[in-house]
Structure prediction request, 101 residues.
Amino acid sequence: MRVLVFFDLPTETTADRREYAKFRRKLLKSGYVMMQKSVYIKLALNSTYSEKFIDEIRKNRPAKGLVQVLVITEKQYSKMESFNGAAESDVVATDARLVII
Prediction:
């Protein structure tokens, strides 16, 4: 099973940023890995472990903002598709404007 944590926390004040950083550090210390910005994932052996992880998130969540948790099976996770866009570059890789004197 996989436990996915999605969060959208305010970062307007210094106290908000401190809470955001504290929550993120807690996730990393607990073994979560960043999938995307504000999306973290952790492997759980069974539903008992996943419930334990959810309780831990519930206890350590910040007072402000939105935190969501989703538990999916390995079969569901293996069906995930990832799409990466082409990297854009300002570097011109052509000699079309090359002038030879």
